[in-house]
Amino acid sequence: MRRTLLFGALVMVLAAPALANPTPPYHPPSEAIPFSGPLLDGGRFDLEAYLGKTPIVLNFWASWCGPCHREAEVLEAFFREYAGRVAFVSVNVQDPSSSARAFVERYGITFPVVQDGGADVAWAYRVTGLPTTFFIDTEGRIVYIHQGPLYPQQLERYLERLLAPPAPKEAP
């Protein structure tokens, strides 16, 4: 019994600094971070080409992510419905090309798929889990972040808000 108490006290003393300095809170970026990278179907993607021109739905996913499978068809359906009004871009995180291609073919994804084998883009955006979707306005500001799979009603609400005209500013 005495050893257990001493061990417990030692653990508390050693853990005290960790308890006093908790992990810093999650701070996602407030503005889109420009990046470029290889596209799954060949060529290169450059986010700069979209910034300032159109709202963007930026989705991070992987083929091994179960929830990513649930939202893939939803994203494709909305990409087709909102074509010309919103740009959809997906970033495939740490997947072999063959796995990513099989995923894209299975769900008929036709919007750009950027390969992020080293997770550099995911790291820059501080993605902590998959799927994660960023909604970026025409000014390049990240206005919404959704972690987890998107369902049709959720995605529709985000897109309606993203496309809504900005509220008029009050005169001083």
Give the overall silhouette: globular
Q: Tally the helices.
A: 5
What would you say the CATH architecture is?
A: 3-Layer(aba) Sandwich
The beta-strand count equals 7
**CA radius of gyration:** 21 Å
Outline the biggest β-sheet: 5 strands, mixed
Explain this structure to me?
With 172 residues, the protein is an alpha/beta fold. The protein has one domain: Glutaredoxin (3-Layer(aba) Sandwich), CATH 3.40.30. Helices cover 37% and strands 20% of the residues. The chain has 5 helices and 7 strands; from the N terminus they run H-E-E-E-H-E-H-E-H-E-E-H. The protein has helices spanning 2-20, 66-81, 97-107, 120-124, 152-163, and strands at residues 36-38, 44-46, 56-61, 87-93, 113-116, 132-136, 142-147. The strands form 2 sheets. It has a 5-stranded mixed beta sheet. The protein has a two-stranded antiparallel ribbon with strand order 1-2. Strand 3, helix 2 (66-81) and strand 4 (87-93) form a beta-alpha-beta unit. The longest helix is centred in the first third of the chain and has 19 residues, at 2-20. It is globular and about 55 Å long.
Question: Keywords for this structure?
Answer:
172 residues; alpha/beta; 7 strands; single chain; five-stranded mixed beta sheet; disordered N terminus; two-stranded antiparallel ribbon; Glutaredoxin
